[in-house]
Every structure is written in C-alpha cells, then in structure tokens.
C-alpha cells in the first residue's frame, strides 16, 4: 500500500511539474532572458492566444512601441510592429493585431502589480488581440478593466532596461524589440 501511495505521489508531482512548465514562457531581450508565468485558470483564452502567437514566432522582432517610465512597456503589434516584416511601420505600430479574431475580456481580481502582463485593447473591452503590456509599477486603475494573464517571475531588470518613450503617449523612436518569445521547454 505504501508503495502504491509513493507511486501516486510521484505521478502527481510529475504531472504538476510538466503543467507548470507548459505555463512558462521565455522572452529574450537585448539584455537577457525574462521568464514569464502564465495564468491559464484566470484568462484561458488570452493565455492560449499569447502562447499560439509566441510559439508561431509572430512576436519575434516586434518592437516595444509604447513605453512609459514608471507605468508600462507595450508590444505585440504583429501586423505593423514587426521589424522583420515588410509591413513594419513604426508610425502605425500599436494600431494592428493578428489575423485572429479579437478576444472577449477575461477580467479578474489579479492586481496589476509590478511585472504583470496584461492585454492591450481599444476602448472596447472585447477588442484585445495580440498586443500586450508589462507594468513597471503597481497600476490599480487597470484592475478589473484589462485582462491580466501572466507575470514576470525572473528577469524583471531586463524589462526595466527597455528603452523609454517620450511624451504622454510614450511613443519610442528606435525602439527595443523582442528577440524571441517561446514556451519554455
């Protein structure tokens, strides 16, 4: 009986470790690697979209087009913000998305604390598509208004080093970009 119990515990832990790794992403930036933990129980559709676009390489080369000191760094415009694409247009970066349909909001009680990833959207709560942002500092005004779907667990210092923008909009000239973004294997 004790042997059966130990086998069960080993199996349970193996599955949980595998599932935990499936919910981690590695974001490579110019200064280093950032590990992100996703929240599939909180925002399953947003997590799935983020993982799909990342694992297809859609975020590779995408610029951080809007970065506001003390607030957030925004990226993810795979249509106009991909510096490796013929469609790249820094003036339009932030206005595009992916070829996939927009997502329905998945608001939750996850606080927009330092390092939280959340989906960018227009004034329509159900307009998130591919763009996301990472908050530098706590931003409680975003709570339950934007879909938080993950958090930086290692490498936040590399997020802090992303080139900041100018003016109230935080638009960035010669912006930093995502080198690669993939599920942790």
List keywords for this structure.
single chain; 185 residues; alpha+beta; Cyclophilin; 8-stranded antiparallel beta sheet; 3 helices; 8 strands; globular
Summarize, please:
This protein has 185 residues and is α+β, with helices and mostly antiparallel strands. 21% of the residues lie in helices and 21% in strands.
| Total beta strands | 8
Give the number of domains: 1
CATH superfamily: Cyclophilin-like
Strand order of the largest sheet: 3-4-6-5-7-2-1-8
What is the CATH level 1 assignment? Mainly Beta
Textual characterization of the structure:
Residues 4-20 have low confidence and may be disordered. This protein is globular. It has three helices and eight strands, in the order H-E-E-H-E-E-E-E-E-H-E. The two termini are 35 Å apart. The relative contact order is 0.24. The chain has a single domain (24-183), classed as Cyclophilin-like (Cyclophilin, Beta Barrel). An eight-stranded antiparallel beta sheet has the order 3-4-6-5-7-2-1-8. It is α+β, with helices and mostly antiparallel strands and 185 residues long.
Give the arrangement of secondary structure elements.
Blueprint: H1 2-22, E1 24-29, E2 32-38, H2 44-55, E3 66-68, E4 72-75, E5 116-119, E6 132-135, E7 148-154, H3 156-160, E8 180-183
Antiparallel strand pairs: 1-2, 1-8, 2-7, 3-4, 4-6, 5-6, 5-7
């Amino acid at each position: 009986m004790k042997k059966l119990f130990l086998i069960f515990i080993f199996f349970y832990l193996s599955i949980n470790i595998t599932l935990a790794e499936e919910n981690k992403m590695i974001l490579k930036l110019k200064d280093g690697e950032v590990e992100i933990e996703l929240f599939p129980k909180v925002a399953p559709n947003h997590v799935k979209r983020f993982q799909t676009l990342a694992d297809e390489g859609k975020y590779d080369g995408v610029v951080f087009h809007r970065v506001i000191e003390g607030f957030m760094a925004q990226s993810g415009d795979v249509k106009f913000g991909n510096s490796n694409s013929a469609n790249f247009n820094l003036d339009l970066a932030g206005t595009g998305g992916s070829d996939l349909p927009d997502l329905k909001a998945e608001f939750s009680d996850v606080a927009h604390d330092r390092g939280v990833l959340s989906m960018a959207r227009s004034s329509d709560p159900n307009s998130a598509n591919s763009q996301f942002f990472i908050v530098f500092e706590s931003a409680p005004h975003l709570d339950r208004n934007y879909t938080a779907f993950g958090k930086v667990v290692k490498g936040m210092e590399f997020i802090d080093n992303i080139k900041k923008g100018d003016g109230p909009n935080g638009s960035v000239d010669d912006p930093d970009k995502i080198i690669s973004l993939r599920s942790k294997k």
